[in-house]
Amino acid sequence: RTTLDTEWAIAWLQAAADAVAEHRVELSELDRAIGDGDHGENLDRGFSAIAAKLREEAPATPGAAFKLAAMTLMSKVGGAAGPLYGTAFLRAATAVGEATELDPVLLAGALTAARDGVVLRGKAEPGDKTMVDAWTPAVDAAKSAVAAGADVTSVLAAAAAAAEAGATATDPLTARKGRASYLGERSAGHRDPGAASSALILRAAADTA
Ligand code: ADP
Ligand code: MG
Ligand code: MG
């Protein structure tokens, strides 16, 4: 594929909703170990609402689809993850603007803007055991893929693989941000739920491309 269109953006959000629903219990179990056990339910509420809205109205551009996702996540998800994912999608929407087709450069720009939004909002650094640990390697991999001349499908495949590796790599870390940080060193030995959900969502993006 040379570009991603609105149809892809809608298909991605629907696939992400399916993935979150499928992994709802698992995500909440991760959160039960180092947080308050609601991450799967929180995200499922938000992504189900996105999928429901997309069945009623079709956004006209990828940016409009991202904006719909952002608004829905902010109003339905709550907790830490709602505003963080909401900001990520809102920044991605702004980055792509009115474009009807996303080329590799615009795609990498959207992923970067999403990650930057999460960092600006949550102030987490790589290694703090948060969703930033999935997003940052994903953005780095996407940028490298673009520099190597990859098409959008390969850019997303690289981002998803890096996000999955990044999520796995949170296992031994001690949380320094969010609810899990209250546990201090007892947070080590568990995967960060937000990093795990970020990897699922990026995998859905790659699978639909
Ligand atoms: P809550 O902790 O309010 O119950 P969730 O369980 O839905 O919210 O989300 C928890 C996830 O949010 C964590 O696993 C982590 O990935 C992410 N998170 C929490 N705080 C931050 C932060 N400051 N920066 C980035 N991500 C964060
Ligand atoms: Mg929680
Ligand atoms: Mg909570």
TrEMBL record:
<dbReference type="InterPro" id="IPR050861">
    <property type="entry name" value="Dihydroxyacetone_Kinase"/>
</dbReference>
<dbReference type="GO" id="GO:0019563">
    <property type="term" value="P:glycerol catabolic process"/>
</dbReference>
<feature type="domain" description="DhaL">
    <location>
        <begin position="7"/>
        <end position="207"/>
    </location>
</feature>
<dbReference type="GO" id="GO:0005829">
    <property type="term" value="C:cytosol"/>
</dbReference>
<keyword id="KW-0808">Transferase</keyword>
<protein>
    <submittedName>
        <fullName>Dihydroxyacetone kinase subunit L</fullName>
    </submittedName>
</protein>
<dbReference type="InterPro" id="IPR036117">
    <property type="entry name" value="DhaL_dom_sf"/>
</dbReference>
<dbReference type="GO" id="GO:0004371">
    <property type="term" value="F:glycerone kinase activity"/>
</dbReference>
<keyword id="KW-0418">Kinase</keyword>
<dbReference type="InterPro" id="IPR012737">
    <property type="entry name" value="DhaK_L_YcgS"/>
</dbReference>
<dbReference type="InterPro" id="IPR004007">
    <property type="entry name" value="DhaL_dom"/>
</dbReference>
<dbReference type="Pfam" id="PF02734">
    <property type="entry name" value="Dak2"/>
</dbReference>
